[in-house]
Amino acid sequence: MRWSWKIGRLAGINVHVHATFLLLILFILLAYWTEGHSLSLALSGVFFVLVIFGCIVLHELGHALTARRYGIQTRDIILLPIGGVARLERMPEDPRQELRVALAGPAVNLVIAGVLFAVLAVLGSAPGWTEMEGVRWVGGGFLTKVMVANLWLAGFNVLPAFPMDGGRVLRALLATRMEYTRATQAAAHVGQAMAFLFGFIGILSHDPFLLFIALFVWMGASEEAAVVQMRTSLGGIPVQRVMLTDFHTLTADDTLDRAVNYVLSGWQQDFPVVFGDHVLGILTREDLLRTLAQHGATVPVREAMRRDVQSLDSHDMLETAVKALRARNCRSLPVEHNGRLVGMLTLDNVGEFILIESALRHARNAAGVPLKVGDGQKPLNADS
Question: pTM surpassing 0.85?
Fold first, then answer.
């Protein structure tokens, strides 16, 4: 994720902090300073927030280590002002496994709260229910605040709404009785209903925090439904059915001026750099603009192109190809067949494919005609 920095590594997983997290630190510092005009009090507030985010890292680590049991790796953990995100490579396809992964995070918070309660009991200062309800966040007992915060984190995360863990729990439970995409849509609708409720209460109570949560939940539910819908649409589709076959290429000896002419005269933004039918690299729009600004249009393409290009195979599945595009944070990748360039796959074209496939699906349902995208496309083979 952009604007994030690595701060450590736990259990083989990189932990990053996003730049916006510093805004939260500043906000807490000012809030505590306003309350008591004391530097020590303000610093204690910042320390409290850092401890809570340490608990959030452990929460996300619970997800990651449970997912690892099922062969699913975690890209990284990112700390945001609203909490943490463990970016798993994928969610388990087995609903029971997804249920365990989703519940692992809140379970960590409950364990932390339980340990702190035991420590407070040994010290003779275990809080009652009334004391926990009226806990003072500025000042007050430090261990009690951390314990209550972990209980709040566990409770908030089990709300049945994406992107919280409870949304995934609900989806996993529904997926035991219905198809996965329908289960996701149903769970997303529940989450959006909760977001609407949060927003309504936030407006009546003039609480901006509830409005922020409502927006966060609504967007998370919509995004999760869209991601699963896209994954379903791309399942079982080979790259050769979606790739572009009408595109321009460049050679390493071409000047950037030729690429500029192609950009201005058409739609293409990224260009495969080839030697014959073999891919040497790719010239992206960003690299083209940067080199133009620094050295002008007479520079050869080899000075600006990227050589670490991961080509796709025409028989790769589209879902895998889209993951490769996202993992490398790029718009397009060349497609090869038996070692020679045969096409380009772009995220824009994948989006167009999904829209067309959706329209044809409606047509099939209405007319009962088996329409498919790319039925007329000639299949690739060694002699084509």
Answer: no
pLDDT in tens, 217-269: 787 777 766 666 666 666 667 888 888 888 899 999 999 999 999 888 888 88
Amino acid at 21: F
Reported in sequence order, the residue ranges of 198-321 that DSSP labels E, i.e. its strands, are 271-275, 278-283, 312-313
Query: 46 exposed, middle or buried (CB, 10 Å; 0-12, 13-18, 19+)?
Result: middle
Cβ distance 353 to 373 under 8 Å? yes
In a domain, 112, yes or no: yes
Per-residue b or e along 291-330, where b marks 16 or more CB atoms closer than 10 Å to that residue's CB:
bbeeeeeeeebbebbbeebebbbbebebbebbeebeeeeb
Q: Are 270 and 316 in contact (CB under 8 A)?
A: no
Q: Determine the structural domain holding residue 90 and report its residue range.
A: 4-158
Joined together, the tokens standing for residue 352 give 């167009």
Cα(366)–Cα(137) distance, integer angstroms: 59
Give the strands of the sheet with 340-346, arranged side by side: 312-313, 332-337, 340-346
266 in any annotated domain = yes
Q: Output phi, psi for 274, to 5 deg.
A: -125, 160
Q: For the chain, what is the total number of helices (H) and then of strands (E)? A: 12, 9
N- to C-terminal Cα separation, the chain: 41
> How confident is the model over 267-321, as pLDDT tens digits?
888 999 988 878 888 998 888 999 999 988 888 999 988 887 778 888 887 777 8
Residues 268 and 150 in one domain: no
User: Is there a domain that residue 30 lies in?
Assistant: yes
Retrieve residue 11's tokens: 């259990």
Cis geometry, peptide bond prior to residue 160 (ω within 30 degrees of 0): no
Taking the C-alpha atoms of residue 263 and residue 268, their distance in angstroms, rounded to an integer, is 6
The structural domain count of the chain equals: 2
Task: Report how far residue 216's alpha carbon sits from residue 26's, in angstroms, rounded to the nearest whole number.
Answer: 22
Report the candidate in 313, 314, 312 with the shortest Cα–Cα distance to residue 241. Answer: 314
End residue of a domain, out of 158, 177, 208? 158
Dihedral over alpha carbons 197, 198, 199, 202 (to 10 degrees) = 120
Counting every residue, how long is the chain? 384
Spatial distance between the Cα atoms of 215 and 8, rounded to a whole number of angstroms: 31
